Amino acid sequence: MAIENKFPGKDVSLEDLKTKFPLVAKKNNNHKSCFDISGVTFGSDLIPIFAGPNMVESKELILDIAQNVKSSGAHFLRGGAFKPLTFPYRSDKYKETRESGIEWLKIAKNEINIPVITEVMEEKYLPLVCEVADILQIGSRNMQNYPFITACAKTGKPIMLKRHYGSSLRDWLGAAEYILYEGNKNVILCERGVSVPHTHRETSRFLLDLQVVPAAQELTHLPIIVDPSHATFWRPWVKSMALASVASGADGIMLEVHPDPPNAAVDPLQPIDYKEFSDLISSMDAVAKTQERKVK
Amino acid sequence: MAIENKFPGKDVSLEDLKTKFPLVAKKNNNHKSCFDISGVTFGSDLIPIFAGPNMVESKELILDIAQNVKSSGAHFLRGGAFKPLTFPYRSDKYKETRESGIEWLKIAKNEINIPVITEVMEEKYLPLVCEVADILQIGSRNMQNYPFITACAKTGKPIMLKRHYGSSLRDWLGAAEYILYEGNKNVILCERGVSVPHTHRETSRFLLDLQVVPAAQELTHLPIIVDPSHATFWRPWVKSMALASVASGADGIMLEVHPDPPNAAVDPLQPIDYKEFSDLISSMDAVAKTQERKVK
Amino acid sequence: MAIENKFPGKDVSLEDLKTKFPLVAKKNNNHKSCFDISGVTFGSDLIPIFAGPNMVESKELILDIAQNVKSSGAHFLRGGAFKPLTFPYRSDKYKETRESGIEWLKIAKNEINIPVITEVMEEKYLPLVCEVADILQIGSRNMQNYPFITACAKTGKPIMLKRHYGSSLRDWLGAAEYILYEGNKNVILCERGVSVPHTHRETSRFLLDLQVVPAAQELTHLPIIVDPSHATFWRPWVKSMALASVASGADGIMLEVHPDPPNAAVDPLQPIDYKEFSDLISSMDAVAKTQERKVK
Amino acid sequence: MAIENKFPGKDVSLEDLKTKFPLVAKKNNNHKSCFDISGVTFGSDLIPIFAGPNMVESKELILDIAQNVKSSGAHFLRGGAFKPLTFPYRSDKYKETRESGIEWLKIAKNEINIPVITEVMEEKYLPLVCEVADILQIGSRNMQNYPFITACAKTGKPIMLKRHYGSSLRDWLGAAEYILYEGNKNVILCERGVSVPHTHRETSRFLLDLQVVPAAQELTHLPIIVDPSHATFWRPWVKSMALASVASGADGIMLEVHPDPPNAAVDPLQPIDYKEFSDLISSMDAVAKTQERKVK
Asked: B196 and D197: CB-CB below 8 Å?
């Protein structure tokens, strides 16, 4: 195949997509991928909900959260055992739980009977993480780590590819093309906020890019989900942005939920609590139903 | 009042707001301005809709549009007679209609009985524009033209202040403070897209910042409305972003509507047509009702 | 002239420029405007220096500064009497000196015999400001205030047009076209920092865009000068960025100079003192001479 | 060590740096790392130059380039054998030369006697790349791939860490801390352009952030070099930005050089040719000498 790439694309056009990203590109206007992961359908009228803590802090915590989010209607339990940190030091509280975290996730998955999505950061941990993950999460910072993406793709596991906060839609779809190129078709895109010149609080770094939902759906058949927790980094805004995400046409929602948000080990400003989550599920479902979709 | 401004604020904090922008700042968490303009209530459960063409192209066109958007449920007719253009040349098609446009708006307002919002760009045209406008629109490019803002405020007319596409929330609220400072309390904020490192199409310049809706509502009692037409600059994305705006908690929606979008005199990529508008009103109303609000 | 503007330009191409901005566009690769203002040549091998305080705080201060910067080699005295402020309140210290400031500038100009550049913000003050200004400064916030720009252009005075911090090169050149369109040929462009996703200090808002120097010079014949003081907002970085501006090919440099920077009435983090200015003039001249240009 | 990270830093403060990035932080104002790599001193008055093609296209080409850039004064030969590409397809021309490229680099290094810097993208290729590289280049896309950075650090080889185009100074310095944390002290930072809301050509994606040079030097003792070729992506602007980089105080310059730029296999818009490089070396040296530094 003769590929020319004389000029780097800041934006992406359908023509560009069809020649350079043929597997990611829609074949026609109605083309939309629909697939099943652990009994949950993606790309249909259902809008699956991923919920859980930023970090799998302990066995007790993850069991409690798994129980609660499942009973409120979450389809997947999310929780990190491996997590990239901006600098190499770890406090007693702010640290990854790694192998233990994976073990606790496994217990929660089995006892509560809920599928799991969790991040993997290194090829060498793929076998371990694949033991528990129904969906492998590739984090923002690894979005352009193509050898690693390829290794994840080759496991055959469904993959959720988070957009880097400095990434164009074109760069993001190019990374997804690497996964599809390996024959792995169960790819979910996840928007989680982008860096912009002006945020709105000292504590906020990102702005949720909901315009990318219709923009991506115009070009690709892959489901696109939205993570308002990381984008806002601020619990009081999560409800507003979650409802807006559903109304925008997102194909799934990822939320950080913790029983005691101010005491979460990591990023305590952003999780919502059980009651807020339960109420939000109902609100999101009501919005979804006005668009012939549903959350529960 | 002793004001120190040693450091420029990129973001805005509530403390900063309360000392430097005391009139814009909420007095308590439940503080929300509620006022009536030409029989339409802002800041209540109603989400008023502003609809119409980018440019008031002719008497016939604006009468037809006024009739149609009113019957579909619009609360205000929008349409520009004065419009800032990036360079000084005008084609036969791409030009302002100025005094004629104001005259045609007046006819539409009276014959169809619908209140009007239109942009004013110069102090000398304030008397003329005030003859027809129920709300004066201050455009993005004039957001920091403080002498002009002050002159508009002094007319006593309700004012909609559009955010500049390169402006922080702090700069925007500071401009609103200038209006309130003149004793003019009927101020509406309008988000219309911001410049970001990555947009999604060659033809798009802006990204709709819906995160600013909860962020602004956390700080100010003023109603905040959203203009998805200018932000997306792309008709196929307008529905998605309009519904998301309603779900985010916006206090009003501004939409560009034209009977024949591809032949609109200005910005033909962005207006929706009558049928799309009518359907969108129903969809927005359905979303609003899930949040105990309403569009009609 | 038939002008089509179907799509908004995020960037500017030479073809676009030649059709829509014919007066701003270079006629050939070597086309460069060269003109004289009050005995100082712009667009030649000389790199004129504008120096002075942010605010004309008092008669004594501006006389002292005028004397000092002139003896160190400044070609123009800069100083603001009118200044846009983000919110309407003024402290005893942080306020405009307005008519008094203009009067003091006039005294400094006459006693020290140095030409003056100062900002004008309203059409009604044009006659007053034109009494003292050898160059009218149009500030960032007024860059797209086209009626005002046109009024300034019609005075026939040389104009320095500052780039808005959220403005594209295309928007900036379009604003310059408005001035040339009125027959006023003495136009100087001034880069002063742009809003970006990441700045480098809590107190910094902007990033100096030096890449715009060769980019603008590729397209337009107008001189482009650089203001590192406002861009950096941080005195320790001013020298580095001033030297880089000269090396980049800038056609002039604007610097904030104050005898006692920490006690400057406005923006005390950014001015350099007399000694730093004097040393910087020599360093800039040395850099300029390596490129067959000169500062003194 | 007790580390709290309640709020994510958009900017970096010296206090933040000293507690969270103690190895990267300057110990005092005059603290500057100075080290030798293959006989070339970094962090002194010398400003080392890295020059060569984007891709090591063939043995003949790299030998010719090595010979030419060395005779003009380059201190290191740069050239990529491994290169991340935005999508998985490769044309006949646009592809990595991988093991062959490393072999050709080795020949050029030995025959021409010039040290080499080249990118490594995967841990498994570290032994191969370390055979030829005097400096390992970690590319922008891997800046936050912490396990990989750590593996590179452990080789003991000097490392050049490119800044991601969406990265804050804080994120960049945090990544450098990971390398120093492994006991590897020979770390060079490289600025290569950041994503911003407005670039200046359809073909440009980035803006060179020269303000980061004094900003980084205020905080860290590590040398910081600048790559104007990738930042501008446009040959006519490279000279201007290279000279500005030297004047800004950069501790090294990286340039793309190709004998026939329009026919370069990758990114043909950005390399300069031999004559331009030779002239630029002289110009950079002249600028450097005005600041008591030197290029040759």
From this structure: yes
